[in-house]
Specification:
With 212 residues, the chain is an alpha/beta fold. The protein has one domain: TIM Barrel (Alpha-Beta Barrel). It contains nine helices and eight strands. It has an eight-stranded parallel beta barrel, surrounded by six helices.
């Protein structure tokens, strides 16, 4: 279980001490990574020096509708500061307007930059806000852009990861693209079911509870 978990704190009032504790817990439990706000990347990188724990951060978070050039600048700074992986929020508004060329360009622009800098990218769909048809279109756009992961949720919307969404993702995406389940994952049983359905990563603020 531990190698699936991205130990996460993304709340607005997070303190530096909470990040230091998060990193210590991630090291102690051999978690795959920590997922934190861009402001804390340098702190996490310092705390995780000489470990295999990845530093994951977010871009266009949590609403996704910032302009592509703004997201690009966020990516550049995040990777320069030491981020190993970028979790970007798809432009949900543009998808719902059926402006698929905009959504495609948004995802492809960031994916190209992230890969050029030697990092990995996840695209957050915010599945709770999408229809079944919109989910499938978003997945197809992610696949075309050759992203590394597709992620269910920010954890800040009306719902989080569901078994149905993970199964749809695994059915729709090619096998090279991995899946991150996140949002509302609070029990070991829930995490195990999501993994069995096809999730490769579990993003949760309840990592320690899951291990116990």
């Amino acid at each position: 279980m531990n190698t699936y978990i991205e130990h996460t704190i993304l709340k607005a009032d997070t303190s530096k001490q909470e990040i230091i504790t998060l990193c210590a817990e991630a090291k102690d439990n051999n978690f795959i990574g920590v997922c934190i706000a861009p402001y804390f990347i340098k702190t996490a990188k310092k705390e995780l020096k000489n470990t295999e724990v990845k530093v994951v951060t977010v871009v266009g978070f949590p609403l996704g509708y910032s302009a592509t050039p703004a997201k690009i600048e966020e990516v550049k700074r995040a990777i320069d500061d030491g981020a190993d992986e970028i979790d970007m929020v798809m432009n949900i508004a543009a998808l719902k307007e059926k402006d698929y060329s905009y959504v495609s360009n948004d995802i492809e622009s960031l994916t190209t930059l992230v890969h050029m800098k030697g990092a990995k990218i996840k695209v957050i769909l915010e599945t709770a806000l999408l229809t079944q048809e919109e989910k499938i279109i978003a997945l197809e756009l992610c696949e075309a852009a050759k992203v590394d992961f597709v992620k269910t949720s920010t954890g800040f919307s009306s719902g989080g990861a569901t078994l149905e969404d993970i199964k749809l993702m695994r059915k729709t995406l090619n096998s090279q693209i991995k899946i991150k389940a996140s949002g509302g994952i609070k029990t070991k049983e829930q995490a195990e079911a999501l993994i069995a359905a096809g999730a490769d990563r579990i993003g949760t603020s309840s990592g320690i509870k899951l291990m116990k």
